[in-house]
Every structure is written in structure tokens, then in C-alpha cells.
Amino acid sequence: MTLENAAPFFAWDVSSYLALFLITAFMIVSLDHLFFNKTDDSPHSTPNKTGFSKFVYFVMFLRFNKNEKYLNRPKMVQWSAEFFPVLLLVFVLRGFIVEPFRIPSNSMMPTLLTGDFILVSKFNYGISVPILNKKLIEFDKPERGDVIVFRYPNYEKNDKYQGADFIKRIVGVPGDEIIYHADQLRVNGVKIAYEDFKDYQGVESGTGMTGFKHQRELLGSNPHDILLEPNQASRGVKATVPAGHFFVMGDNRARSSDSRFWGFVPESYVIGKAFGIWMHYDDSLKFERIGGFD
Hints:
By secondary structure, the protein is α+β, with helices and mostly antiparallel strands. It is 21% helix and 28% strand.
């Protein structure tokens, strides 16, 4: 399944609600200024600015100078003006720089565990319009081995997954022929090599994976650890990745819903590249989880 069959990217999430508040607050304070003209022109206010600089300052802080107060205005105007700068900063950080996500399942074990709170770079691959995710400037293309967060394309139009964000690892880029059979990956006819480790010892929500085969998949310049069920192979697939899409898989191959089951990830649905863990909480806090990962 490809982009033309996917559900719309837009869905109500934190960024959407932040944008709605910012627009509403901007309108409330703008109308208050327009109809009640409460700009503070006291001698203690900031010096006069040009029309453009006044506009920019107002867009950022909902006031024309530093000393402008809203104490005599309705609570709605006060709250809009006070919360606007902070939430605007949060929106810019989440929309353009870095966004936090929480790992909800075991599909990326052993790399990421249930309860890991991760950071996702929004600018590794370029600069996109928040909420719509429309690319403005492109820097790099996602590569094999990258761990990406993306809006689930929801080809089956399941209401449960509308607007859901998934995290998986790219194993195929546009034009690649992917064969996954008997837990052996081949990319463009090349058999990927593996290193074996001791059987995996799961913790917390991942205790059910204790005894799984723990291997290192040597995929190009991005080798990474994977888990395999010891008694049966996970689902296989043979596919050629179309232009503008990626083939993704979870590192926990037998416990991952990924491109083997529902199809390709449209490039325009990629939100960013995961690069670090900033907190872990499942059954307990685990500070040793904090840091980067492959």
C-alpha cells in the first residue's frame, strides 16, 4: 500500500491543539487592541519601534511594548496574553526542532523498551510546516538503519489508529528490493550478515521476550540489535520499495506490526529521526537508559 491509499496526515494532537490556542489567543488580543486600543504609551514603555518591528513584537508576545499591561481587561484577554509567549516557544520547539515521544510497546526491543521517552529531531531531514508536515527545505534523505517516527498511514482506515505515530527502523529505501525470509534479510540481493549474542534477558514489560535470540544485524553503516523468536520465524516478505516511500521493520521482529503487514511509509509522513532517550519509566525509573542508541 502506498500514499494514494493512506489516511490524511493531519490529525488532532498536541501540536494541533497548541496551534489552535495560539490562533485563538492572537485573535482575542488583536480584537481587544482593535476595539479598545489599550496600548501602553507611558514614559516607562519601550522606545517607539517601526511598524514592522512592532508587528513582529506583537506576533511574538501579544503586546506592543514591554510594559503593556492587561490588568483591566477581561480574564480571557489576560490569559491569552500571558500564556501566548510560552506556548509559542513550545510550539516552535516541537514543530521545528525536537519533539518528545513515549515508546508504548515492545516492537523496537532490544533497542528501545516500553516506557522509554525518546527525543526526535525534526530537522535532520529538513524543515517542514508543523501540523501539515509539508517540507519547506530538504537537508538529507532518511537512510537504511535510521530509526524514524512517522504518522501511521492507516491504509485500512481504522479509527483506532487515526493520527497514531509509529516508530520503526528503515530497512529499505526507494528502489530497494527487500526479501525477508526465515528471519534473514536481503537487500538488493545482498545477504545481510549477523552477529550472535547470548539469549536475551527481558525486564519489566519485556520479560516475555526472555530467551529470544539476540543478534546484531549488520545493515550497511547502521548496524543494530534485533530480537528473534527462538521457535519459529517471523513473517517474511518480498517487496520492491516504490519512489517516495520506505520499508520499515521493528527490531523485535516477531512482535512488530510493520511494512511486512500493512505496506510502505510515505516519505511525506516521516516526522523525524529518533536520536536519544531522555527518561525511562515502565515499572520503575531507569536512569541508565538515558542516552543515545543505534
